[in-house]
């Protein structure tokens, strides 16, 4: 079903953009590598999967890096005589190849920071491919503006930094045409990837929030593609993210990746919470790795902050012009203590909060007047808008006020630099700064502290390296809301909104003893120097390899429309139950056993009215009327409910409360299958459950004759699961000496007598039939949750012990595509009913003595 939050996504995914006109025609870039067969042009992007079983002629792995902007500088030559290109050495993504295997080819795909005419695009593409191994994606101007300055900068960037559009003038309302442009731009990027990819040998690594729906476009074409995504910005809490009208489309698109990376656990935790609350997905941690089970695929979650490129910083430190600049700066700030800020001109960087903290420092600690200087370097703004203009005016006013109130002849407490600086000039400022202050109110990572630490360390052989004559030392005051904060344990962390506390932290940093500064610096330098960009990319690549290792072993196919598209990946031995196949086996058999779970199998879990429909009653009656059949409903529900609901089915066997009570037909008495009739333990379990019920809104207790069940389906997903885990431990502790089993299931915690399970029910039925000379030659067992796995396991045990013949028709079937001991699955209860209807038609109703053995 197409998502209700966007009614025309199918058109978007097909490349139809009625509001923006048709994309421009252009020649395709020559393929760099090819897949077996023919790749069709992508003007109509059908969800045809390229998943050939023919081995590729190219065996070397290749990494395709997809970014919004290529790490290449483009400059038009004088008099419009072509273009000149060079690597952008400041781009971190350029250096991530240092962590990949030496023999691995790296291909970059992204847009250029230049407006290339349509007539020049083929030539530019070829030059970039030949000289830089880059493939440019050219976006039409109307799409580019709405994609980047529109959806990315007006919607995603503010939202991911916790700014909500409370009014049309503050951040801007959601604009559907901007979302269309975002989808269109991602589609163009996907076309460039598909033109050059070899899906069996290539890895694809997508970067940042500009390309979050790209994984769906690629997965539609290549089911087994090895694909990772890394988000370089924060990921907001679910309370913020859920306000996005296209929230589910983006989540589902990201889940088409194999590995999703975040800088910090906080960002990953927020993403996992969104998947839980909006998609009902729960994550699992296994041997240190976090994974989300999504339609048979395990989507890995990677937590690894990016690092800096050590070689680049160290080479800059060796530059002669840089060393000359250091001497000049030392002379300029002689006798002064320099605090340094290096930030983008951005509303989230907290530059004005930092200036206010500096003002507070000079007021509260007058000894620093005339001595402490804050040098604030701001990189040019990448965004635009009224909020940015207001912030710039505030910054200028604060600088003017502080310098007027505290300035002296030859002393300016704030030196504000708002022009672009080269990396070597920034390194010079880092070298002479006693402390770096980062006061961002929200930032994905922020590598300024890392660069500062390396510059303060200096490099051997550099005559003017930082404090070359003494021990290396540095101090950091960093906001607790930035991605690098958790990795800098020696930094003084602050809440930048608390001006007074930030001012005190700045005073503490510059007043600290040199020995303490040295110890903190050494700790930071050890971390930064070993966790560089190469370490980050190597770690991500290794996790991608691990996550994708079973891709070509599993059977995969794509289902769903538009951004509801996903790939179902299953073990080769786990198959969908074929109705024709089971019907054929059913007709040929002479003695059949049919075991049906109730909730989630013949009755949808979401249904409020749990009474079986007349259609279900009719099907079961027909199956029971066939003399060859022994039919049982095996459920966790109480015998009164099941007996009442299935009263019309006189020949139906019922096992209630997971088999504690059992009868072969309505004419038979209920058997008590429990080993003990002592239920004194209920007096211990119920008070504990009541305690948790009072503390957990939406939870409830169900008291059965033989068991007590705590339900938390209607509670908050996160809190309910946490309370269930805590309750499980609590009950196991207080009931340790009682003859009971405490188990958790789908939104339940249950306490029941030991030795009672659906598996024991199945074994008893198989054994009774075998003893009476009616050994089953056809077994159908269907269930949907953890308790039904006991039945599937009992079938294997019965075959091993000879109660069932392995050569006979045995169909253990789970409902839903998930890890199971069953060998077959059906998608949902509707599939189950369809299958039972087919068996109903193949049945031969005739008078019979019922199910009794």
Explain what the structure shows.
- With 853 residues, the chain is an alpha/beta fold.
- The chain has 26 helices and 32 strands.
- The strands form 6 sheets. It has a 9-stranded mixed beta sheet, with helices on both faces. The chain has a 9-stranded mixed beta sheet with strand order 20-32-31-30-21-22-23-24-25, sandwiched between helices. A 6-stranded parallel beta sheet has the order 14-13-12-15-16-17, sandwiched between helices.
Largest sheet: 9 strands, mixed
Got a strand count? 32
- Low-pLDDT runs: 1-58, 463-467
SS summary, helix count:
26
Helix content: 25-40%
Structural class: alpha/beta
Query: Compute the gyration radius: what is it?
Result: 33 Å
Distance between the termini: 47 Å
Task: Provide mean pLDDT, rounded.
Answer: 86
The strand line-up of the biggest sheet is: 5-4-1-6-7-8-11-10-9
Report the sheet-strand fraction.
15-25%
Give the overall shape: elongated
């Amino acid at each position: 079903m197409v998502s209700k939050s966007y009614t025309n996504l199918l058109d978007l995914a097909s490349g139809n953009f009625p509001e923006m006109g048709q994309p421009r025609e252009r020649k395709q870039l020559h393929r760099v590598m090819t897949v077996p067969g023919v790749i069709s042009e992508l003007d109509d992007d059908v969800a045809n999967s390229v998943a050939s079983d023919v081995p590729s002629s190219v065996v070397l792995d290749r990494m395709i890096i997809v970014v919004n902007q290529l790490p290449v500088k483009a400059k038009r030559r004088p008099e419009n005589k072509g273009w000149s290109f060079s690597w952008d050495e400041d781009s971190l993504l350029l250096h991530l190849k240092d962590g990949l295997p030496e023999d691995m080819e790296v291909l970059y795909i992204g847009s250029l920071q230049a407006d290339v005419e349509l007539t020049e695009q083929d030539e530019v593409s070829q030059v970039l491919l030949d000289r830089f191994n880059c493939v440019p994606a050219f976006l039409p101007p109307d799409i580019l503006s709405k994609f980047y300055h529109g959806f990315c900068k007006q919607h995603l960037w503010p939202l991911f930094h916790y700014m909500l559009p409370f009014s049309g003038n503050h951040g801007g309302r959601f604009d559907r045409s901007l979302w269309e442009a975002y989808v269109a731009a991602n589609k163009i990027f996907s076309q460039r990837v598909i033109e050059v990819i070899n899906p069996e040998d290539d890895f694809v690594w997508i970067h940042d929030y500009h390309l979050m729906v790209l994984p769906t476009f690629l997965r539609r074409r290549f089911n087994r593609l090895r694909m990772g995504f890394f988000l370089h910005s924060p990921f907001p809490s679910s309370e913020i993210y859920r306000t996005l009208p296209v929230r589910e489309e983006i989540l589902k698109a990201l889940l088409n990746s194999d590995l999703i990376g975040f800088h910090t656990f906080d960002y990953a935790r927020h993403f996992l919470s969104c998947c839980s609350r909006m998609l009902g997905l729960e994550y699992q941690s296994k041997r240190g790795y976090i994974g989300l089970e999504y339609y048979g695929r395990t989507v890995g979650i990677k937590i690894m902050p990016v690092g800096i490129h050590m070689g680049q910083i160290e080479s800059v430190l060796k530059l002669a012009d840089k060393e000359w600049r250091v001497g000049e700066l030392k002379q300029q700030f002689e006798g002064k203590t320099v605090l340094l800020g290096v930030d983008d001109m951005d509303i989230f960087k907290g530059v004005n909060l930092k200036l206010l903290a500096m003002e507070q420092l000079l007021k509260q600690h007058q000894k620093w007047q005339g001595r402490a200087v804050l040098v604030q370097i701001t990189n040019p703004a990448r965004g635009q808008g009224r909020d940015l203009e207001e912030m710039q005016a505030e910054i200028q006013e604060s600088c003017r006020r502080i310098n007027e109130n505290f300035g002296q002849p030859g002393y300016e407490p704030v030196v504000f630099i708002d022009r672009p600086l080269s990396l070597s000039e920034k390194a010079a400022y880092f070298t002479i700064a006693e402390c770096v202050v980062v006061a961002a109110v929200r930032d994905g990572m922020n590598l300024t502290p890392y660069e500062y630490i390396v510059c303060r360390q200096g490099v051997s052989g550099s005559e003017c390296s930082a404090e070359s004559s003494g021990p290396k030392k540095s101090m950091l005051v960093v906001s607790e809301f930035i991605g690098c904060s958790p990795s800098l344990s020696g930094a003084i962390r602050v809440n930048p909104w608390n001006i007074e506390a930030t001012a005190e932290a700045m005073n503490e940093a510059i007043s600290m003893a040199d020995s303490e500064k040295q110890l903190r610096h050494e700790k930071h330098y050890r971390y930064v120097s070993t966790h560089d960009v190469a370490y980050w990319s190597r770690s991500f690549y290794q996790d991608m390899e691990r996550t994708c290792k079973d891709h070509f072993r599993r059977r995969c196919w794509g289902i769903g429309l538009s951004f509801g598209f996903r790939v179902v990946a299953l073990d080769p031995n786990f198959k969908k139950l074929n109705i024709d196949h089971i019907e054929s086996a059913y007709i040929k058999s002479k003695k059949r056993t049919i075991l049906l779970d109730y909730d989630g199998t013949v009755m949808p879990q979401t249904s409020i009215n749990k009474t079986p429909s007349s259609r279900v009653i009719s099907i079961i009656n027909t199956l029971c009327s066939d003399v060859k059949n022994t039919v049982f409903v095996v459920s966790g529900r109480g015998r009164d409910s099941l007996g009442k609901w299935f009263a019309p089915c006189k020949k139906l066997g019922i096992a209630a409360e997971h088999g504690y009570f059992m009868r072969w037909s309505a004419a038979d008495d209920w058997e008590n299958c429990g080993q003990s009739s002592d239920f004194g333990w209920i007096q211990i379990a119920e008070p504990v459950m009541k305690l948790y019920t009072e503390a957990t809104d939406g939870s409830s207790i169900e008291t059965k004759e033989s068991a007590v069940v705590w339900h938390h389906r209607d509670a908050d997903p996160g809190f309910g699961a946490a309370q269930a885990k805590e309750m499980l431990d609590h009950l196991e502790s207080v009931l340790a000496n009682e003859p009971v089993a405490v188990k958790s299931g789908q939104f339940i915690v249950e306490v029941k007598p030991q030795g009672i399970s659906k598996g024991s029910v199945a074994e008893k039925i198989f054994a009774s039939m075998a003893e009476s000379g009616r050994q089953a030659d056809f077994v159908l067992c269907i269930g949907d949750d953890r308790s039904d796995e006991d039945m599937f396991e009992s079938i294997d045990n019965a075959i091993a012990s000879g109660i069932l013949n392995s050569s006979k028709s045995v169909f253990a079937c789970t409902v839903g595509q998930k890890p199971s001991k069953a060998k077959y699955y059906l998608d949902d209860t509707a599939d189950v009913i369809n299958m039972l209807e087919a068996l109903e038609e193949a049945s031969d109703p005739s008078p019979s003595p019922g199910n009794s053995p």
